[in-house]
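Field guide to reading this record: the first block holds the primary sequence, the second block holds the structure written as C-alpha cells, and the final block holds curator observations. Each block starts with its own label. This record concerns A-factor receptor, catalogued under organism Streptomyces viridosporus.

BLOCK 1 — SEQUENCE
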Amino acid sequence: MARQVRAEQTRATIITAAADLFDRQGYEGTSLGDIVEHARVTRGALYFHFAAKEDLAHAILELQSATCRRLARDTEVRGRTSLEALMRLTFSIARRSAEDPVLRAGLRLATGGARPRPPLSHPFTEWTDIVAARLLGAAEESDVQPDVDLDVVAHSLVCFFVGTRVVGRSREPAARQPRRTAEMWQILIRGLVPVTRRARYLSLAARLERETAPV
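BLOCK 2 — STRUCTURE
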C-alpha cells in the first residue's frame, strides 16, 4: 500500500512539473530531461509512469477535463438559474487557472493543436457543449433574448473566454483573469439578457469578480 501511495505521489509530481513547464515554455520547448530535472525524479521514475511526452500531455488534458466537469457540477446548485451557474463556472475556472498549472497547461496544449485521444473530447468541444446546455436552460428560464442563436452564443462565449486567457498569458498575470471574466460578462449580459433582468446579472458579475479576485 505504501509503495502504491508513493507511486501515485511521484506520478502527480511529474504531471505538475510537466504542466508548469508546458505552461511557461510550451510543449515543443520542453524536453523530458527538463521535466525530470524540474520534478526532481529519475528518468526511470518518469518512464515507469509515462512512455513519452505525448502521454504526459494526454494526462494533463484528462485532468483538465475532469476538473472542468467537476466545477460544472459544483456550480449547479438548487435555486440558481442556469445563467448564474454558467457565470459561476467561468469565474471558477478563471480562479483555478490562476492557481493550477494543470489548467493553464491544458489551455496551452489545446490552443497549440494537441489532439486528445478518444474517448476524450477536445477541451473546446467539451466546453462548448457545457455552455450550450446552460444557455438552453437560461433560454427556458427567459434569461436570454428569444431571438438569440444559442449555438452561436456558446461558440462565441468559449472563443471570448479562451481568447482573454491566451492574450493575457503573455501580457498580464493569471491573477488578472477574474477581472477579464467580469468584463466579458458585462458585454455579454448587455447583448443577451432582457433589459428587465440585466441589473441582476451585472451585479452578480461584479460580486463574482470580488469573490474570486486574489486576496
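BLOCK 3 — OBSERVATIONS
The mean pLDDT is 93.
The chain is about 75% helix and 0% strand.
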